[in-house]
Amino acid sequence: MFRVLAADSIAKEGMAALESESEVSVIYGKAEDIQDPESIDALIVRSATKVTKELLTRFKNIRIVARAGVGVDNIDLDAATENGVLVINAPDGNTISTAEHTFAMIMATLRKIPQANQSIKDGKWSRSSFTGAELSGKILGIVGLGRIGTELAKRARAFGSKVLVFDPFLTTERAKTLQVAPVTLDELLESSDIITVHTPLTKETKNLINADNLSKTKKGVYLINCARGGILDEEALYTYLSNGHIAGCALDVFVQEPAVENRLVHLPNVIATPHIAASTAEAQMNVAAQVAQEILAFSKGKPVKNAINLPALSNDDFQKIYPFYELAKVSGQFLSQSFSSPIKEIKITFSGSITEMDTGLVSRGLLSGFLQPRVDRIVNDINATLIAKEQGFSFGEKYSTETQGYENLIEARVIGETESFSLQSTFIYGYGPRVVNINGYSTDFDPEGFLVYIEHVDRPGVIGRVGKLLGDLEVNIAAMQVGRKMAGGEAIMMLTFDKELDQDILLKIKALSDVVSATTINL
Question: ACT domain: which residues (predicted)?
Answer without folding.
Answer: 451-523
